[in-house]
Write a structure and sequence with these properties.
This protein is mostly helical. The chain has a domain at about 5-95: DNA polymerase, domain 1. The protein has 7 helices and 2 strands; from the N terminus they run ββααααααα. The chain has a two-stranded antiparallel sheet with strand order 1-2. It is elongated.
Length: about 130
């Protein structure tokens, strides 16, 4: 049995997603929801090509984004032009989450640090206070 895991949701069978796709389809941001590969059809990718991806084990948009172009070219029936079109459509649907080192350093520069007032306790906490749900 294949298991597909997201940060906030989990499912165990591709059929479960097909039976109720609205339960797994989220927005364009990567908020932990699973977006099925069928979403590519709305961006000009044929159902046949989507089926080829699914046979190769790539069933989600995030899966397409995380699979290298070289690996997608090994999928039987996908040409370089098709792979480029699939990768472009997937990146439009859901951001891959990759950022440059410069952008990361700019984000880290504005991180707010909260101290407990005790250096030993701060060190015990790993330098930060974590919110628990």
């Amino acid at each position: 049995m294949d298991t597909y895991i997201s940060e906030r949701s989990m499912m165990t069978e591709p059929e479960e997603m097909e039976a109720n796709p609205s339960a797994y389809v989220g927005g364009a941001e990567d908020d932990g929801t699973i977006m099925p590969a069928e979403e590519l059809q709305n961006h000009g990718i044929s159902a046949v090509d989507i089926q080829k991806l699914k046979i190769a084990g790539i069933c989600t948009i995030k899966g397409v984004n995380m699979t290298s172009k070289r690996a997608l070219l090994k999928v039987k029936g996908l040409s370089e032009a098709k792979v480029d079109k699939i990768k472009e459509a997937a990146s439009k649907i859901q951001d891959s989450g990759f950022i440059s080192a410069l952008e990361f350093s700019l984000r880290r520069a504005v991180v707010f640090k909260l101290s407990t007032g005790s250096e030993d306790f701060d060190r015990l906490l790993g330098g930060r206070v974590v919110e628990i749900d």
